[in-house]
Amino acid sequence: MITIRQLGEADTDSATDLGRRAFPAPAEQPDLRYELARSIARTWVAYEDDRLVGYVLGWVAADEAQLMSIAVEPGARDRGIGKALLARFLRELAAEGVTSVVLEVRKGNASARTLYERFGFERLGERTAYYADGEDGVTYKRAIA
Ligand SMILES: CC(C)(COP(=O)(O)OP(=O)(O)OC[C@H]1O[C@@H](n2cnc3c(N)ncnc32)[C@H](O)[C@@H]1OP(=O)(O)O)[C@@H](O)C(=O)NCCC(=O)NCCS
Questions:
Q1: What is the largest CA-CA distance in the chain?
Q2: What is the domain extent for residue 108?
Q3: Ligand 1 in contact with 82 (CB < 6 A)?
Q4: pTM for the whole thing?
């Protein structure tokens, strides 16, 4: 069974390790211990039984949020965990008064882009060679109630 809860002290090492496995570039690997102490950060983690299998991290500034990172354990993908994390993220942010969410994703990241588009994120534009290896970034935005 999958459960989702707010990031706590006990989750930071496993979530940071997952980010390291999910993103090859160090600049894209969040340090969840650091994020836990950051007042603008909002993070939820997904557990399957007693194993951390995913996280979603965003930053909130006034009524706007930026989705900074989302990752699901490779062996647990395509089972709806990413969707469950994103749904929880949007619901919790709406409850605290956030009205829009922006994000940036690699142009070639088809699974993430499909996920965002399924959730109603609209493409704002592209940033040429935004990533260190030269890949373009695509920006998305979504209003939340
Ligand atoms: C993106 C990611 C978080 C999705 O997590 P997930 O748990 O596998 O996603 P879900 O099972 O909830 O699927 C959600 C939707 O994503 C899309 N999706 C997932 N895997 C896909 C794939 N291999 N190809 C195309 N679309 C895919 C589908 O639209 C799917 O919805 P559907 O099942 O209704 O069609 C996961 O692939 C991941 O951790 N990737 C590596 C890290 C990353 O790139 N993060 C995003 C950039 S910040």
A1: 41
A2: 2-143
A3: yes
A4: 0.95
